[in-house]
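stage 2 :: seqdesign
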C-alpha cells in the first residue's frame, strides 16, 4: 500500500507561482519503483493529465496547456515529487492530485487509469 499526500496549494494571483509537493509513504514500498503523475480536476469535469515523471526522473512529460510553465521533479531519497507551477492563469484553477503507478519503464505515463494510488488532492486557485 502506498499513501500519497499533496501540499502547497492555495490562492495566488495570475502570473504568480506555486510549488506543489507530493509525499509518498508506505510500510513496504520502494519509491523508486513507481512512476508519478500529476492530474487536475474541476467540478463536473474529467480528471486530466498535467505532468508525469518516470521512476528515475529521467523521463518527464507535460500537457500542452502547461508546457513551458510547469516543471515536475522528484527526490527519491526523500520520497517526494514536486510540481513547480509558474505563470499561473485563472484557467489553472483546479484540484491537483498526485498519483503513483508501480512501473520502472523508461517513459512517463499520461494515462490516469494506469495509476494505482492517489492522494486526496490540493486546491489551486488563481485569481485574475
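stage 2 :: out
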Amino acid at each position: 500500500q502506498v499513501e500519497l499526500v499533496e501540499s502547497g496549494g492555495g490562492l495566488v494571483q495570475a502570473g504568480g507561482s506555486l510549488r506543489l509537493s507530493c509525499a509518498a509513504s508506505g510500510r513496504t514500498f520502494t519509491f523508486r519503483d513507481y512512476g508519478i503523475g500529476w492530474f487536475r480536476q474541476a467540478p463536473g469535469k474529467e480528471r486530466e493529465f498535467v505532468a508525469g515523471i518516470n521512476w528515475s526522473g529521467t523521463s518527464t512529460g507535460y500537457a500542452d496547456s502547461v508546457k513551458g510553465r510547469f516543471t515536475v521533479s522528484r527526490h527519491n531519497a526523500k520520497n517526494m515529487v514536486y510540481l513547480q507551477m509558474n505563470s499561473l492563469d485563472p484557467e489553472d484553477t483546479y484540484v491537483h492530485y498526485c498519483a503513483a503507478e508501480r512501473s520502472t519503464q523508461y517513459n512517463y505515463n499520461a494515462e490516469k487509469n494506469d495509476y494505482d494510488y492517489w492522494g486526496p488532492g490540493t486546491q489551486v486557485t488563481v485569481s485574475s
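stage 3 :: structure notes
- The longest strand covers residues 94-102.
- Residues 64 and 128 are 22 Å apart (CA to CA).
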